[in-house]
Amino acid sequence: MNRILGRREAVVEDTPGVTRDRVMYSAHWNGRNFTLVDTGGWEHDARGIHARVAEQAEMAVELADAVLFVVDSAVGATATDEGVMKMLRKSKKPVIMVANKVDDFAQEADSATLWGLGFGEPYPVSALHGRGVADLLDHVMDTLPEFSTVEGVERSGGPRRIALIGRPNVGKSSLLNKLAGSERVVVDPLAGTTRDPVDEFIELGGRTWRFVDTAGIRRRQHMAQGADFYASLRTQAALEKAEVAVVLLAVDEVLSEQDVRILQLAIESGRALVLAFNKWDLLDDERRRYLEREIEQDLAHVEWAPRVNISAKTGWHKDRLVPALDLALESWDKRIPTGRLNAFLGELVAAHPHPVRGGKQPRILFGTQASSRPPKFVLFTTGFLDPGYRRFITRRLRETFGFDGTPIEVNMRVREKRGKKR
Questions:
Q1: Is the backbone of residue 204 left (phi > 0), alpha (psi -120 to 50) or beta?
Q2: What percent of the chain has pLDDT over 70?
Q3: d(Cα 216, Cα 236) in Å, to the nearest integer?
Q4: Contact, 267 vs 407, CB < 8 A?
Q5: Quick one: 257 and 196 in the same domain?
Q6: N or C terminus of the chain with fewer C-beta within 10 Å?
Q7: Strand, coil or helix: what is 229?
């Protein structure tokens, strides 16, 4: 893991079972970004905590686009390795055999014995010294699809997909039950009752929506074990597959660091966003006014997200959820014609030019919307724009074109100076 990442992230210890939970890392190779998942060791007849570690590893395989099967070439294939082989074959995922601890050319013969596991030619590497890792990563890039088949958000033409997320026991299951009109999800006062994701097709506002109820995101996910770990992983997967995230917050408790982290996760996922404040009906007018001011201050960074004040228990104001979802998804899907965008930029720069820095004033030559879902813009400039000026442009884009309920991204491409002709 550390060799591929190019930095020390994963714990290294010469003791079996150090890695217990699956951990995700962002990695980069030859211009491509990908996610690397580290799992604990897999054992066939594991018991206790080791059984949960094995479940986590199998879950990681299920959610992967490809699998690196690492075997100790010095030891050779063990009975456990053969058990892993059977599990991987059932998964039907692309598998790359990695023969580790091949520190020099003379040891490559040891890796040849791993052909018998049935996954093709083993890639001999030395994680300790870095030998062979570049060739391995080249092959990984060739194996991975251009776009992940696991985390896609393609429009399927079916009902719009909604992920309910929030910390444990915030009311997600109760809200889903009230929207669906039935006890679809087990609800218990004990935090973390929901173990598996439950997809529910619900009629709201005359249309069908696909809600994915997720287990609460744990405070310290890397310490989660067993069913709670499984639920947390599925929560991430649900968010990745959704088009809009409904973040549920409880107004009878102060906004926690965990709430803020969950919000940030939703923003970074690039999904449309709606904030739902649960138990609002229990507050008197004075408390509501106080909370309004508190929310404006604490959640200023997501002031663009539609807010809905509801009661998951009674269904109070649940009808207000659909207009908020429609608004967020409309913004998420929105495209601005290039001509209209550049007319906007021209007027904006004329009225509010970029500050002069070091005797130079960067100009915006041209702008275009590179993509939607979420909206991403590219500005072609003569120099780097100050972060504050980019935030100003982003804010005006929202105000002018109505990007309520979606994160938007504004990137720059600085025009290279033309070399003098010889």
A1: beta
A2: 77
A3: 10
A4: yes
A5: yes
A6: C
A7: helix
Instruction: Assess if residue 61 is contained within a domain.
Output: yes
Same structural domain, 202 and 271:
yes
**103-112, 237-246, 286-295, range with the lowest pLDDT:** 103-112
Grade residue 241 by pLDDT with cuts at 50, 70 and 90. Answer: confident
Q: How many domains does the chain have?
A: 3
Separation between Cα atoms, residue 339 and residue 74, nearest integer Å: 64
66 confidence band (pLDDT: 50, 70, 90): very high
Query: Under DSSP, is residue 147 helix (H, G, I), strand (E, B) or coil?
Result: coil
Q: What is the pLDDT of residues 133-142, one digit of tens each?
A: 999 999 999 9
| pLDDT computed for residue 191 by the predictor | 54
Among the listed residues 379, 288, 280, the one whose alpha carbon sits nearest the alpha carbon of residue 338: 379
Q: Are the C-beta atoms of 262 and 154 separated by less than 8 Å?
A: no
What does the pLDDT read at residue 47? 53
Q: Provide, rounded to the nearest whole percent, the portion of the chain with pLDDT above 90.
A: 36
Q: Which of 317, 332, 347 is the last residue of a domain?
A: 332
C-alpha closest to that of 238 among 205, 277, 196: 196
For residue 42, the 8-state DSSP code is P
153 or 26, which is more confident: 26
The CATH number of the domain holding residue 255 is 3.40.50.300
Whether 383 is covered by a domain: the verdict is yes
Q: Which domain holds residue 213?
A: 160-332
User: What letter would DSSP give residue 354?
Assistant: P
Closest CA to 122 of 57, 63, 76, 66: 76
CA distance 37 to 67: 9
Nearest to residue 133, comparing CAs of 95, 80, 96? 96
- What is the residue-wise DSSP string for 254-321? PPPHHHHHHHHHHHHTT-EEEEEEETGGGS-HHHHHHHHHHHHHHTGGGTTS-EEE--TTT-TTGGGH
Structure tokens at 162: 């909604």
Is 369 in contact with 338 (CB distance < 8 Å)?
yes
* Spatial separation of the C-alpha atoms in residues 408 and 186, rounded to whole Å: 36
User: Does the pTM exceed 0.90?
Assistant: no
Of 236, 252, 238, nearest to 288 by C-alpha is 252
Burial 276-287 (b: 16+ CB within 10 A, else e): bbbbbeebeeee
Radius of gyration of the chain (CA): 25
pLDDT of the residue at 110: 74
